[in-house]
Amino acid sequence: MRARGFTLIELAVAIFITAILFAIGYGAVNQAVNSREALEERQERLLAVQTTMRVIGQDINQLSLRPIRDGSGNSYLPVIRAAAGDSERIVELTRGGWANPAGVQRPALQRVSYVLEEKKLRREYTPVLDALLSAEPIRRELCTGVKSVTFRYMDVSRTWRDTWPPQTNVSQKDLRHRPIAVEVTIDLEDWGKIKRIFEVAT
Description:
Layout: H1 8-61, E1 68-69, E2 76-77, E3 80-82, E4 89-95, E5 110-117, E6 120-125, E7 138-144, E8 146-154, E9 160-161, E10 181-188, E11 192-199
Antiparallel strand pairs: 1-2, 3-4, 4-5, 5-6, 6-7, 8-9, 8-10, 10-11
C-alpha cells in the first residue's frame, strides 16, 4: 500500500499555524524585553533620586561652623547661605567630615554648592576651602529632569525661612549661625515634588 503524503492545503495550514505561534512567541519575548528595560530605567531613576537626597542630607548633617573668605579675600561668607542673587546656584555651605582615605594634605572641611542648570542638578566643591575666584570647582551631576529645587531653613524659634541668613546685614558673629533644620523640595518632571527635612547636627 502506497503511503499518503500531505496535501498542499495541509502544508499551507501547518505553515500558517506555525507562523502564528512564532508571532505570538516573538510578541511575548519582545514585551518581556521592553518591560525589563523599562524596569531597569525606573530603577536607575530611583537610585539617582535616592542618591541625590542622601548626598544633600549628608552635607547638611555635616554642616560646619567655619565661615569662608569670599573669592576676593576681602570679606567672609556665612557657613550656609541661600544664593538668592544667582539664578542657577541654589545654596552653598561649609561641611566637615570630608573623607581623606589617601592621606592627601588638605583640610577636612569642604565648601559645597548646589547648582541647577538645564534641568540638571549638580554638586560642586573647590579643592581648597577659601578658594579664589579663579579656582575651578569640581562638579558632579546628581539628577536630571529637575524642574526646580527649593530650600527652606528653620531657625531656633522653629520658624521656616526662605533665605539664610535671615537678616540682610550679617555681623561677624552671625556668620556662624546655622538653622536647626533644612527642608529640601525637588520638583521632578516625571515624579513631581519630593520633599525631605534634614536636621542640622548641633
